[in-house]
Amino acid sequence: MRFDIISCQPDLLDSPFGHSILKRAQQKGLVEIYVNDLRKYAINKYGQIDDYAFGGGAGMVMMIEPIAKCLAELQAQREYNAVIYMTPDGETLTQNTVNRFSLLQNIIILCGHYKGVDERVRQHFITHEISIGDYVLSGGELGAAVLTDAIIRILPGVLNDESSALTDSFQDGLLAPPVYTRPADYNGWSVPAVLLSGDTPKIEQWRFEQAVARTEQRRPDLLH
User: Which residues form the tRNA methyltransferase TRMD/TRM10-type domain (predicted)?
Assistant: First the structure.
């Protein structure tokens, strides 16, 4: 699977993709991540990629020309299944959306900045608009990192134990149940006895009941 991320601040993405699970996934050859510097497609030698908004108002707008040139170059090399724009007014990211994207082969993610992109970019080039929550960040890079991480971790072979991703919160419509590890007793705080019983059916039943209870308490909207 290949990700091409378009950003005017590419250095912001060095750390998220250079460590832990995402780094290992690239080393294994399971995924390719490329961060494309939008300023390489600037309209002049000064690296201009933004301009004032028609009609006035505060803030700058990302211009259509650099984005169109970058997209044209990428799409001339391969076919992309999705061109995603990270924006606060996009569809709120959910695990179901992540699962659908994980079935694709090549994805472009455009990171917004300033007051956003020229609306014609959204009208003519973008296939999906995604938000990671009802708040505003300085740019789309952190959102792109969140989306990329969420997709990659569920790809076959990325996690050492593939069943781990299947038992995460939201995969079955529930929050994950509580988890414990050694020591079994700390300061008089004991691990539930059923988890030490070795009785797998009872453990799975306990986990399911705990997941339902936690979801009912914290996210009842998922159950109704």
Answer: 1-223
